[in-house]
Amino acid sequence: MERQKLRIGIIGLGIISDAHVEGAAAMAEIATVTAVCDIDETKASTVAQRFGATVYTDYRRLLDEAEVDLVDIILPHNLHYPVAMYALERGKHVLLEKPLTIDPAEGLALIERARAMGVQFSVAENTRFVTAYVEAEKLLRAHALGDIYQIRTLIAGSEVERLKNPHPWKAKKIGSGGGVLMDAAPHTFYLLKWLFGEVATLQAFHSQLVPASEVEDNAIVIGRMASGATFTLQFTFTAESPWTERLEIYGTTGALIIDQIANPPAIVYRGTEDFYGTPLAGVPYDPVHWKYNSILDETKDFIQTVWDSGVPKVDPADAHYGLLMIEKAYVSARSGQPIAFAELAKSGE
Ligand SMILES: NC(=O)c1ccc[n+]([C@@H]2O[C@H](COP(=O)([O-])OP(=O)(O)OC[C@H]3O[C@@H](n4cnc5c(N)ncnc54)[C@H](O)[C@@H]3O)[C@@H](O)[C@H]2O)c1
Question: What local confidence, expressed as pLDDT, does residue 341 receive?
Fold first, then answer.
């Protein structure tokens, strides 16, 4: 007998949902979208028509009534916890957009509930699927840059319009849980944990250039990894450039510089005389689609993982770790003090 396809519910059909919807559509051999939900019924209807899915404007009704095995949640940050918890409690597999939650304790509660229910749960952390980072991981695992001494990252783009014209949640603390740190730093702390391990110390600084909003729009976090490497992480919502991410890794035998809007986007350098470097193989120049494609791939991967009863590539525990770093970065920015994690663990804070 032919196996029944996975039935997918998509909740939240805003700006970034396109890549999730296309990801689900691309898995038509094993999955089908049966229900969609947005408080904006027009948005929900448009997507529903494409799949012949049922339209909901209340996520509770979707989760109580619709026949769905897997839900993809793409909502404002303050809704991540209640909606994901509601879905997990009803035994659904859940893919949840970043950040895991606003409050780390709630993030942990989701992870525990998923475990207790025996369902698959992952955070849509597209970083894990960005081609340049996947190739960087191969270099690092092969120790091809030697011991790593310094790491620099940047996430830059503009949210000025959404911050200025009071967006329903982006510019509001209650909806977003914070500004550029809460929004962008989950990607970077995930990247650090995935490629370099744990953070030992950090100190953060943030500022707000768009007065109409309630949240910080620029931030810098500096610190040291447990490995000894130092790091500088920069985040801006006020860069009038295409959205980009930079990653610079400096090791004892070489350096790798990635910038998604540079051409080529990833170059390996071998020493001070290697002026032109060597483009990192397998990383296409695609300033328009690099992020979209990574979100598409993460969605496809999660659906396939549920189908195969496998283990999702993004462990939500790593997203939770990032959230703890963000929480401490806010504490540091407010107090003006650095934070050392080994000492925190010892003191039980
Ligand atoms: N991985 C990435 O690179 C990336 C990029 C952008 C956004 N995101 C994340 O995706 C999520 C959504 O971001 P966005 O930019 O698409 O936001 P958005 O505001 O464009 O979309 C949110 C959608 O949720 C709907 N909504 C709000 N409350 C609802 C409710 N109670 N029930 C059902 N629908 C509701 C809104 O009508 C809207 O369509 C956020 O968590 C954000 O951080 C991730």
Answer: 87
Q: What are the pLDDT digits (tens) for 118-134?
A: 999 999 999 999 999 99
**Residue range(s) defining the domain that contains residue 23:** 6-124
CA 80 to ligand 1 center in whole angstroms: 10
Look at ligand 1, atom 31, and give the residue with the nearest C-alpha.
39
Q: How far, in Å, CA of 20 to CA of 23, rounded?
A: 5
Written as six digits, the tokens of 4 are 């029944």
Same domain, 224 and 99: no
- Number of domains forming the structure of the chain: 2
* CATH number of the domain enclosing 108: 3.40.50.720
Distance CA 105, CA 23 (A): 30
Which of the listed residues 92, 124, 156 is the one where a domain comes to its end? 124
Q: Is the CB of residue 79 below 6 angstroms from any atom belonging to ligand 1?
A: yes
291 pocket-lining for ligand 1 (C-beta < 6 Å)? yes
Asked whether residue 135 falls in the same domain as residue 54, the answer is no
C-alpha torsion sign, points 273, 196, 104, 111:
positive
Which of 64, 75, 130, 189 to probe ligand 1 with, by most ligand atoms within 8 A of CB?
75
What global pTM score does this model have?
A: 0.96
pLDDT band, very low/low/confident/very high, at 167 (cuts 50, 70, 90)? confident
Cα distances from 330 to residues 31, 162, 163, 198, in angstroms, run 40, 22, 19, 18
* Cβ neighbours of 152 (radius 10 Å): 16
Separation CA 211–CA 207 (nearest Å): 10
